[in-house]
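hiii, so i know i said id send this last week but things got crazy w the move. better late than never?? heres the sequnce for the chain we talked about at the cafe, plus the structure i predicted for it. fair warning i was half asleep when i ran it
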Amino acid sequence: MATHRPVVLIAGKLSLLPAGDTLAAKVQEVDVVEMQAKEGIGAAGMAVYCNAGFQVMKAKADDDTKANVLGLALSSAVLDAYVQVQTDGVLELADWTESAGSAALAVGTDYYLDTTAGVLTGNIPGAGNLVFVGRAISPQRLEISIQRPIKLN
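okay and structure toks below
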């Protein structure tokens, strides 16, 4: 069986991939689900969980039943409306005020679920559940990497 080298763009010209070189590309997958809101979701970026009726509600670190974060809402939603929820990947918002307490994220900071419904915090909660949600990779971008709750009390 013959080996074929791929065609690549080098210095603006199509060329065969030089012998010994490899292709490396960053792969990023983003999963988004659309679900019905069982309560109003105030803003994009708010953390939500899935209730027993398979509807989303705002997640809270100090409530065991609400600490299993599904993802972050991509928009606000009123009761019974459908909202898209991003469960992984990078979420970029121009303003994080409603969901994280300030317009910009602190780069390199780990964000956790807060005891305030739907809100993220850069501080580890003192009680309830520790739920890692993601890390700020720029002032507007959060890399979502939701972890299971760890009971603190």
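btw The chain has one domain: 32-151. thought thatd interest u
miss u guys!!
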